[in-house]
Structures are given as C-alpha cells and as structure tokens.
C-alpha cells in the first residue's frame, strides 16, 4: 500500500473532536489537553529520534509524508535502545531534545515529570486506540502523546505435544493452565511444563498478567500511591510460584533465554511472550513448524488480561515546529499508515480499526494478539516506576528460586515503593 496524498480531512480520521485526553479522576474536573493543531499542509523541518529497527525503517515511511507535504522535511535519527534513556535525559537537561521521539511506555511519567513533553492536542481521539495502550500516554490526567505501536503477551504452546498429552482445547482458566503444564510433562514427555521467568530483570512483565487476571490494582488512594501487597497480587504471586515449587518450571533457567531451541525440541512446550516470537520460533523450527504450535490468551482467574507494551510518540515542548511535529505524529496514527507500517516493520497497530485490514485478520495467531489487546493493561505512569519495579524483580527472584514467602516479598516491595514514592 503506497499513498501519495495527505489532507486535513485525512488527518481528521484520528484527529476528531475530543473534550478530554486524560484519565478522569475524582479531583480533576477535566483532563488537560494541548492547543489544537492548525489546518493546512505541514511545513518546516523536524527531527525525530527512534530506537532500534524502528529508527532504521521509519525514514522509508517519512518520505511519503514529505511527498504529500512538499514544504516539510523529516530527519530521523536512529538511537540504540541501550543508550536511549540516558540520551533522552541528557537532552532534556540540556534543552536539546528532538521535535518528535519514540519513547518507551514506562518512561512517560519520568519525562513528563521533567516538564519536557508537550500535551497532546485536544482533537486527538483517544478512543481509536486500545484502552490499555492509550493509558500509557497519560500522566496525571494529561495525555502526552499517542501509542505508536503495541504488543502484548500470550501463551505459546505446542499443539502436537498438547494432543499427545490429551489436550485438544486450550485452557481458559488458571486451573486449566496448571493441568496442561502437568500433562505436557507427564504425558507428552516435556522436561518442563511451561517456561516462566524465574525473577530477574523484567520478570514483572511475566507476573503482572496473572496479577491483573486476579483483579489486582497497582495503585491505591485514587491512583496516588503504589499498591503491591494486595490480596489479589498475593494470589497471583502464589500461583506463579507454584509452577516452580511443583517442578513445572525451571528455577535454574539460564539468564540468557534459550526459548526458541527449547520450544522446538519440546523441552519447554509452553512459554509466555510477545508477537515477535512467532517468526523466531518458526525460523528455529524450520519448514512445517508453523503448524506445530499456536497461541492462546492468558488464562483467567477473574478475567483474562495481559501486559500491554510497545512505544509511544511524543512531541517535546521546546520544538519550534509544533504543528508539523503533531501533524506527523497524527499521520502515523492513521489506520492506513498503521497497516503500512506493520508491513514495513511488523509492529502491531495501536489503532483498533487497523486490525480489520486483511493484512492482520488473515493470520489467526496474530488475531489472538489483537483480542488480548482489548483487555491488556499497563503499569502506572509514575516517574519512579522503573526504580520501584527493580525491587519487585529482585523479590520475585527470591520467590521463584528459593521459595521465599510471597506475602513477605510483597510487603518488602510495598515498603520500598513507599520509601521511594511515586515521584509526582
């Protein structure tokens, strides 16, 4: 799909009249929004920072915007992921930020707290995005960008081994997942029932889907404080720990994941991950392996939920080309642009209507990711989240590897979270 024209009417597909862009709260009359973007073609030059493969591939798409807006120029700078956070904070401190940037969802609170981000224009319709993804743009009742692309986590499972274990229908609840893991090990010959991260960096992303499934809320006091030691969170951590204490998951799993070969060999017949693993396991498995596995939504306790990740697009306050910056961001959120970007990058669309395109509906596994995104959630946008969650990861490692008491671990996390504070 190649397009050569863009109009103000086209922008209106995502820039519809909206009275509020932020989350409503008890003490806020109306969420704040930024000034509207002026009508007309984009003009001027803007700099865009994007990380990893997105930074390498975005120039191809940016050329279309330039062709449709002859007075505009989009300069894309690719930034390595491992250097990105420090580069951003340094640029903010020095007041030398780009006009537009791709930003990790968990950085939003920190950068907004540094007063670096421009509030999103009020005409952007937040309803076009997946709710969980839209929530990642909002800090203290103000939206500071748009979700650019999204990802969520599902359970990958070997259908051939499941059949050998006597399972023909994937489970939909926690008890069913535990039974399936046991059957995979006892009847299908797998060494482990399911691969789960045994604590360590980023393990919160594996635990939280179960917490949300149990109905856990990560904040309390009208969203003004952390809430890690709730009964729902405890229930989820106890359930997660049980896979390790019952020998269904490897508590000594290597720090460097061996997911693809273990899944292909059948050593680990189930694991939880995002959409990028489809191509990875199919490459490792070779011809025909695509037919030997499937994906399913996170089984439910009270409901099925998962972690919503991805990246947002923001405009920095010190831009001298605000209108062009936001017009470029809005254009990247058009359904047609989102589908085209998926074709270029395989990044999943954050705009719900884009999922109706045959490019996405034709793949049943991909469609399951779209279904999970309807209920996927994100952590709170507190500036201190990254700092606090480091404590959570460390405590989860004790829970999974040494059998530490989940209740005591969560109390430790809560205590440290209260000591650190929300940063707001």
Automatic annotation (TrEMBL):
Keywords in alphabetical order: Signal, Transport
Listed InterPro entries: SBP
Cellular component aspect of the GO annotation: ATP-binding cassette (ABC) transporter complex, substrate-binding subunit-containing
GO biological process: maltodextrin transmembrane transport; maltose transport
Signal sequence extent: 1-22
GO MF term set: maltose binding
Family: Belongs to the bacterial solute-binding protein 1 family.
Stated name of the protein: ABC transporter substrate-binding protein
Species the sequence originates in: Knoellia aerolata DSM 18566
């Amino acid at each position: 799909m190649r397009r050569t024209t863009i109009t103000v009417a086209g922008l209106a597909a995502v820039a519809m009249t909206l009275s509020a862009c932020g989350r409503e709260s008890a003490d806020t009359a109306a969420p704040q929004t930024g000034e509207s973007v002026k009508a007309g073609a984009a003009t001027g030059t803007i700099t865009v920072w994007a990380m990893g493969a997105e930074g390498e591939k975005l120039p191809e798409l940016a050329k279309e915007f330039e062709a449709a807006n002859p007075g505009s120029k989009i300069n894309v700078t690719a930034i390595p992921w491992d250097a990105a956070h420090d580069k951003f904070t340094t640029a903010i401190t020095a007041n030398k930020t780009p006009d537009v940037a791709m930003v990790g969802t968990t950085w939003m609170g920190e950068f907004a707290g540094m007063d670096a981000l421009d509030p999103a224009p009020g005409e952007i319709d937040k309803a076009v995005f997946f709710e969980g993804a839209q929530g990642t743009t909002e800090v203290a009742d103000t939206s500071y960008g748009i979700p650019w692309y999204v990802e969520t986590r599902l359970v990958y499972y070997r259908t051939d081994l499941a059949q050998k274990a006597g399972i023909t229908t994937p489970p939909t609840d926690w008890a069913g997942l535990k039974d399936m893991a046991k059957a995979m090990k006892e009847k299908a010959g797998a060494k482990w029932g399911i691969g789960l991260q045994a604590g360590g960096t980023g393990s919160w992303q594996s635990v939280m889907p179960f917490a949300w499934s149990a109905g856990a809320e990560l904040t309390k006091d009208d969203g003004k404080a952390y809430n890690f030691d709730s009964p729902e969170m405890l229930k989820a951590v106890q359930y997660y720990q049980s896979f390790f204490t019952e020998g269904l998951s490897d508590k000594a799993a290597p720090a460097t994941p061996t997911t693809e070969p273990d899944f292909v060999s059948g050593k680990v017949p189930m694991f939880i991950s995002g959409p990028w693993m489809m191509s990875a396991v199919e490459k490792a498995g070779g011809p025909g392996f695509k037919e030997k596995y499937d994906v399913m939504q996170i089984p439910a306790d009270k409901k099925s939920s998962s972690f919503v990740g991805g990246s947002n697009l923001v405009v920095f306050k010190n831009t001298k080309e605000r209108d062009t910056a936001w017009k470029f961001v809005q254009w990247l959120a058009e359904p047609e642009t989102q589908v085209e970007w998926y074709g270029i990058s395989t990044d999943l669309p954050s705009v719900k209507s884009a999922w109706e395109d045959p490019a996405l509906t034709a793949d049943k596994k991909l469609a399951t990711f779209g279904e999970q995104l309807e209920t996927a959630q994100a952590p709170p946008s507190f500036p201190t989240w990254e700092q606090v969650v480091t404590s959570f990861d460390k405590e989860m490692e004790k829970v999974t590897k040494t059998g530490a008491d989940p209740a005591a671990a969560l109390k430790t996390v809560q205590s440290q979270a209260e000591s650190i504070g929300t940063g707001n």
